[in-house]
Amino acid sequence: MLILGYTTKLVSKSSWRVKRTQNSTRIRDFELLNKQSPLGNFFQSRDFYEALNLANQHPFFVTTSERELSGGLLAYTLDAPLFIPRIFPSLMVYYGPVLAENPSPNTLSTLLRNLDSEARKRGALRVDIRTPFPPFTLNDVFLKNGYTRFDPGGEYSAIIDLAKDENTLWKEMKRSSRRAIKKAIQRNVEIKEVANYQDLRSFYQIYLNLAQRRHFVPRSFNLFDALKSKLQPKGTTKFFLAWHGEKPIAGILNVIYNGQSIPFIAASLKDYWKLFPNHLLFWHSIRWSKIKAKAQTYKLYHLPKVEYHKYGANYHPFKTGFGGDLIRECSFYYKNISPLKLQLLEKVSRLLRVANVREILRAVEVRRKLKT
């Protein structure tokens, strides 16, 4: 088993040359496996690794050690506020591991054991895994290796066949979605490519608004910057903004890999939902993926099987409104590596919340004094 990529271990120059050569060869082998395997995807690719590396999320590959690779995965450190990633790092495997068509029975177990070992070396408190296969496939292997399965309501995806002509794609959408797209056009919503740094900052601000509304830790701006500056020229990513007059009101980031286009990140300002910018954005993204990116399929991922209300919004009818076949394609697992660190993190988080409340109260008091 090999651990490849980011490392803090000091080695001599001569041994580093050998190690780097071996690493680059294995990474190339895994990229080939990722392209050939039906489980392969952008989030386990060399391109995503490079973007994560530029965003200082310390990505690394874990692969099997035999000459003919039977499996591997890309992992990285999750974003978190303040100093937490350095002291309390958590690792994420997003749409991995990727396995060969006929892997040996112990391949997944070996990958998980070595991932755990690397997590301990890095002082990680937790590992989260989102697999590219449904839970009934290898669930027992995860459980035997100490992982817990959970379902946040996102094991399904809607897959749209872009081989169909545009007129058929339009007709296969729900009537409500077609009506929303027409209303967005009538209300003067325009879709434009993210053209410059200021556009990217606007996109990110809309995304931060979404993170605050849905209560998740946002990805760093450095990752957005890397995905645009390094991968968009390769044709691997594409950013679009929806505008109403001079105001950017919604955005979408597409990633393209192995003939599949995925709206990786989409966000909008709630005050402008009445203009239906999201519907127009996704339809534009679907058409662009078919015509410009020459993708064969379009995947709207992270869907529940049925309608699922969370944070005051129901995303099931929106994502299924564009047509496509609903398939169960992934599963979610986590493993606590350091229970003691988790307890300490909870205490630190409580202290930070208390400190934040105190800062808010101070700010309110200052404003009151200024008014008087």
Structural notes for this entry:
- This protein is α+β, with helices and mostly antiparallel strands and 372 residues long.
- It has two domains: 149 residues, Aminopeptidase, CATH 3.40.630; 173 residues, Aminopeptidase (3-Layer(aba) Sandwich), CATH 3.40.630.
- Helix content is 44%, strand content 24%.
- The protein has twelve helices and 17 strands.
- Strands 1, 2, 3, 4, 5, 6, 7 and 17 form an eight-stranded mixed beta sheet that branches. A seven-stranded mixed beta sheet has the order 9-10-11-12-13-8-16, with helices on both faces. The protein has a two-stranded antiparallel ribbon with strand order 14-15.
- Strand 10 and strand 11 form a beta hairpin.
- The radius of gyration is 22 Å and the shape is globular.
Summed up, what is this model?
This protein has 372 residues and is an alpha+beta fold.
The CATH architecture name of the largest domain reads: 3-Layer(aba) Sandwich
SSE-based structural type: alpha+beta
Order of helices and strands: EHHEEHEEHEHEEHHEHHEEEHEEEHEEH
CATH topology of the largest domain: Aminopeptidase
Short descriptors:
372 residues; alpha+beta; Aminopeptidase; 2 domains; eight-stranded mixed β-sheet; seven-stranded mixed β-sheet; 12 helices; 17 strands; 44% helix; globular
